[in-house]
Amino acid sequence: MIKIQVGEQKTMFTVHRSLLCSTSAFFRAAINWPGFDGTIYLEYEDPADFEIFTHYVYFKTLYTQTRDNESTTPTSTTTTAAGIKISHDPEWTTLSSLYLLGDRLQSATFKNALITALIEKAAADTCLPVDQAQHIYANTVACAPLRRLIVDFHVFGFKGETLRRGSPAASPDLVDAPREFLGDVLEAFVSAGGELFAGKKKGLPWVEDVGGYHEFEGGVEGFAE
Questions:
Q1: Backbone φ/ψ region at 38: left (φ over 0), alpha (ψ -120 to 50), beta
Q2: In terms of domains, do 97 and 137 share one?
Q3: 176 in a domain, yes or no?
Q4: Is 112 found in the same domain as 51?
Q5: What is the DSSP letter of 75?
Q6: Does 66 map to a domain?
Q7: Considering the entire predicted model, what is its pTM?
Q8: pLDDT string in tens for the chain (225-residue length)
Q9: Which residue range is the domain that position 153 belongs to?
Q10: Total domain count for the chain?
Q11: Cα 133 to the center of its chain, rounded Å
């Protein structure tokens, strides 16, 4: 059993070694470090998020919970001229933050589960988020699948309507928008070409190919203690 101390509150978790190593390359490396003393310290992580991670380690399922500072934030939607619903649900931030936790812990399967959860939420709520790019781009590298998913939401879902200044559906991401985000959006528009606006591309890429946003780790799931 491995002890993990999380957050400023020093919340302690105890997790089976083999399950932890099979899910996270970070923990596998930490546990195999010669100076490992049986406890791993994650001072800057959120214990509530880590609890969701440990649940995934054991059951390979996700559950989310609203953070205290989000509990008073109302869930609302608006509809664009194109008929696309825009979501202002704080659960988008929760799911994105969990993905970033998975990124730091180098857990491809956990991140894949979060990507799937984001896509399933988009389908279930018939809404897309507009306020996640700044948070995601500040905490991921250029090749992160979550970046591509958020860009595709803006390009194929909103068709750029949320990125027009002065538009009633203008995205909060336009304020101090990361240059990388705007560059990726432009590249995606150029790649899609005129077919996107001519109605020839009717399918949404995240619906047609969920696995296209997934990552794969060689040897992690087959880890043997």
A1: left
A2: yes
A3: yes
A4: no
A5: P
A6: no
A7: 0.88
A8: 999 999 999 999 999 999 999 999 999 999 999 999 999 999 999 999 999 999 999 999 998 755 454 444 546 677 766 566 777 789 999 999 999 999 999 999 999 999 999 999 999 888 889 889 999 999 999 999 999 999 999 999 888 888 877 776 677 777 778 899 999 999 999 998 877 766 665 689 999 999 999 998 653 333 333
A9: 78-213
A10: 2
A11: 11
